[in-house]
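hiii, so i know i said id send this last week but things got crazy w the move. better late than never?? heres the sequnce for the chain we talked about at the cafe, plus the structure i predicted for it. fair warning i was half asleep when i ran it
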Amino acid sequence: MRRAYLLALLCLVAACTSSGDRAADSAASASSSASRDYLYLWTASADTTQPDFLAVLDVTTPPDDTSRYGRLVTTLPVPGRRNGPHHTEHEMPADRRLFANGFDTGRSFVFDLTTPDAPRLAAEFGDVDGYAHPHSFLRLPNGNVLATFQMRHGADGAMRAGGLVELTPKGAVVQSASADTPAADPRLRVYSAGIVPALDRIVTTATDMDGKEDDPSRTLQLWRLSDRTLLSEIRLPGPNGMLTAEPRLLADGKTLLVSTFSCGLFLVEGLAESKLTATQVAAFPRKDGESCAIPVIVGHSYLVTVPAWSAVVSLDITNPRAPKEVSRVAFDSTDVPHWIAVSPDQRRVVVTGYATMEHQVHLLRFDPATGQLTRDTRFREAGTTTPGFRMDDKTWPHGGNAKGVPHGAVFSRR
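okay and structure toks below
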């Protein structure tokens, strides 16, 4: 009996020691990954028989570990096929639950990135309260997510203007509000939004992702943030006022710069008084139907992709009524840069796009003090001298070797 008791006790001690070792190893692994920087790429599979996926790259800045800079860490496939991965949130939220839409199917996905190098799918959803095809996701002051839904199913089966839906970080609906009014432009589809907490306001844009450009919407709508009441709307003037795109809040907390896909840039004021005014302050060339696209504001700089120049451009907006170009980085003439996002330290910019850039990801270096942009030539694949990460020559960790088409891209936060 005594011998049996001692053996049982030894086994228990061994089990506890083993369990403790495993816990320590797990904690050490988590600590190691939390001290590194990652880039998440929301990626379509060019082979529609294979799944779309989230790719994770290690982008910890050299000289910490140059051998790992820009290397593929893992991938996470999502359910379904042909989702059409499109927009993610533009920066990693504090809770590290990243929202991403598959615009073609109308399915959206929530990725849990609390363990930065081991993503998992936390939730997914489709239509909400009759609203279909979410496009953009923004964080509200209360930590919930404001989603812009392009359209809504009408009683007659026709599609009408969509609206705003507030979701919890787990994807559960909180409330919704319609952008469809009796006087609404029939081409209006809620595209993106700018949240202005200091004035209790939201401004939304209206480009139809599925529409033709023969007579596109020029609409901006103004909402009260606290109760989602639609207050007013205006239409942007001139040839550069078509296809309203991305609102970005200036440092004053009350003024927006709104881009258009027709390559205009408008200063939008009068939010507090609910009397919107819009003044065109800049314009870029546009060719072959290509659209100016995603902008970001960093301090006194406005960064935007300009496909006609195959470039990312940096503007000084110290005086937002008269932006001045400071710097630009041009890619190959056949590249069409589209999406950009900035790292938490504001010193790196990720770029994805179309045409010959379709299967590539690039990084730029950015100096927030001067507004200067340069290519990050260190971000390249092992054994090559060409900057960038290719997604058309890989066998993926989740299986398959389909060409990847990255769209939304966002940096981790430590």
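btw The mean pLDDT is 91. thought thatd interest u
miss u guys!!
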